[in-house]
Design brief:
single chain; 143 residues; alpha+beta; Aminopeptidase; 5-stranded mixed beta sheet; 5 strands; globular; Acyl_CoA_acyltransferase; Bact_Acetyltransf; acyltransferase activity, transferring groups other than amino-acyl groups; acyltransferase; GNAT_dom
Length: 143
């Protein structure tokens, strides 16, 4: 496998390079324009992106926020974590989780938190292997 380089996304061009990976995780993102507009709104609310590059192509990324609440105190919440199908099981997700863990430590956070679907057993297995523990259920109500 080719060398992987991790970097935080800070340009619109690099953000758009994440689109294909994001679309694998979020198929409702129908175009780069829709994706760019959504990410732009989220960035104004504190959303950050970390990408895994293989040469000039993004092959995985994480979207996360620095938050604080009464349960965890200061923590990083991972909204999105995805890798292209062809690079899964190559350790890239592990590298991203480790970089996010180190980022959380640098930012004086107490936890790294994320949600995954109950039916997504492959992701759950991956998260358990990375040391994350299931702490509750996430509930949602359409309004």
């Amino acid at each position: 496998m080719k060398t992987i380089r991790l970097s935080h996304i800070d340009t619109e061009r690099d953000c758009l390079a994440c689109f294909v990976v994001a679309q694998e995780l979020r198929p409702h993102l129908i175009s780069k324009d829709v994706f760019a507009e959504q990410v732009s709104r989220q960035i104004r609310q504190g959303y950050r992106m970390l990408a895994a590059w293989q040469e000039d192509q993004v092959v995985a990324f994480a979207g996360y926020r620095l938050l604080e609440n009464l349960l965890y105190g200061r923590f990083i919440y991972v909204d999105d974590l995805a890798a292209m199908a062809e690079v899964r099981s190559h350790g890239i997700g592990r590298q991203i989780i480790e970089e996010l863990r180190q980022t959380a430590q640098r930012l004086a956070c107490t936890h790294l938190v994320l949600d995954t679907g109950l039916a997504n057993v492959l992701a759950q297995r991956f998260y358990f292997r990375q040391g994350l523990l299931a702490k509750g259920l996430h509930f949602s109500l359409p309004v």
